[in-house]
Design brief:
- The chain has 14 helices and 19 strands.
- Strands 4-3-5-10-9-8 form a six-stranded mixed β-sheet, sandwiched between helices.
- Helix 7 packs across helix 8.
- The chain is elongated.
- It starts with a strand and ends with a helix.
Length: about 425
């Protein structure tokens, strides 16, 4: 594909294996390759998974060749009867399979070096389509190969992750760079947003998403977090960063303090830095999240977490309230399911632990709701320094993994906001 006189490569990944379709194995190889292709300036527009079937594999690879410059297959080049990728690629590209003596010698050598005798079926791995470029695999017995067809390039890689990754970085990338004269890179900046849903983020920065070309802007939602991805394509990372900078500044201006981290940074990284700078200790109480809040806080800064309590019944709260500033009000507070009770739990856990800060997450589920996501009920999260309080109330409560994850992130986000903006 040529754009403004420059040769651009569009790639497609075809992951092969019935085990992928059956869900027995997750296709992490394709995700890894997608990131690598992006980093060297290759567009990836399609990813396909197909089972070990001659007809369906042939159709998938032929379709990929019709619409992409580069087709990368993963898996199916081993020694067994169901390793049929080399046969299918040969048929699709109108070639015969032929024995490659150097590849056969490599395979035999690897078996001898390990003290094994090569079985006859391993010879299958040395057969590649006529005219294909052999790619030696120093980490396994399955050689790779490249077929340069008039429609495009087909690169066959093994499915074993460490073999595939070595071959991709050391053989595939140099080949693509030379073949397509790749000079552009694609660089990302990911802004991580907390305590705001995907639709709310889209409402505020939707004009940037709709009007973006280079850089492009997109959003990706996770439980308790939304990622804003800004991607730019340029001659090098410095030029890409210049394209990203004004867009990032505009997103930050719109979303403000809801942006808590960038790229590989996590909420825990952000809060850990704040705890270290302020030298504040914290004690945690939680119920529905089952230890996720304490775990995240320990990941943030192990040395600043004094204690964590997981309470699943009224007895745990009664014991805590005995340490509150007003234990005589415990019966009155226990009848409350909202802010007053959670605030007193936060105060009590702080006093009991002798910490600078107390964090409490108290959720009350709807007993008739069995939903694993956005379960009905109420969750209140409160943090206190003993004098002032900061709280969040959510009209949802549940023990499903999405709910627990979301609320645990919301709790750590509340710590971040208290440390950055105070308790007002």
């Amino acid at each position: 594909m040529t754009v403004n006189g420059v040769l651009m490569a569009n790639a497609e990944i075809v992951s092969i294996g019935s085990e992928l379709l059956l869900g027995q194995i997750v296709d992490t190889n394709a995700a890894w390759m997608a990131q690598r292709l992006t980093s060297v300036g290759v567009n990836l527009f399609h990813k396909t998974i197909v089972g070990d079937n001659h007809e369906r594999m042939g159709a998938a690879i032929a379709q990929a060749l019709d619409r992409s410059d580069v087709v990368i297959t993963g898996g199916g080049i081993g020694p067994t009867q169901d390793d049929i990728t080399r046969d299918v690629i040969a048929k699709v590209t109108g070639r015969k399979l032929s024995l490659h003596p150097d590849l056969l010698s490599d395979i035999e050598r690897r078996f001898r070096s390990r003290g094994f005798i090569m079985t006859k079926n391993n010879e299958r791995q040395a057969y590649i389509p006529e005219g294909a470029i052999p790619v030696h695999n120093p980490n396994g017995t399955a050689p790779s190969f490249v077929v340069e067809d008039e429609r495009g390039v087909v690169i066959a890689l093994p499915g074993v992750p460490f073999e595939m990754k070595w071959l991709f970085d050391n053989e595939v990338v140099p080949y693509l760079q030379k073949r397509f004269d790749l000079s552009d890179v694609i660089t990302y900046r990911v802004l991580k947003v907390a305590d705001m849903g995907e639709s709310a983020v889209d409402e505020r920065i939707g004009h940037l998403i709709a009007g973006s070309s280079n850089p492009t802007v997109g959003v990706l939602a996770h439980p308790g977090q939304v990622d804003v991805r800004i991607a730019a394509k340029a001659s090098d990372e410095t030029e890409a960063a210049k394209l990203i900078a004004p867009v990032e500044a505009e997103v930050r201006e719109i979303l403000g303090s809801r942006v808590f981290a960038i790229d590989e940074e996590s909420m825990e990284d952000a809060v850990g830095s704040l705890l270290s700078r302020s030298n504040k200790t914290i004690a945690v109480y939680e119920n529905l999240t089952g230890g996720l809040v304490t775990g995240r806080m320990l990941d943030a800064s192990h040395e600043h977490v004094v204690t964590g309590i997981i309470g699943n019944d009224i007895t745990a709260i009664q014991r805590l309230l005995a340490h509150s500033s007003a234990p005589e009000r415990s019966e009155e507070l226990l009848s409350d399911t909202g802010e007053a009770l959670t605030a007193e739990i936060a105060r009590a856990i702080r006093l009991q632990a002798g910490a600078d800060l107390g964090l409490a997450l108290h959720g009350v589920q709807d007993p008739d709701d069995t939903a694993l996501n956005l379960g009905k009920g109420r969750t209140v999260i409160t943090i206190t320094d003993g004098n002032a309080f900061r709280s969040r109330i959510y009209e949802s409560a549940g023990r499903g993994i999405p709910d627990r994850t979301r609320m645990s992130i919301n709790a750590v986000e509340l710590v971040r906001m208290a440390l950055t903006e105070g308790f007002g």
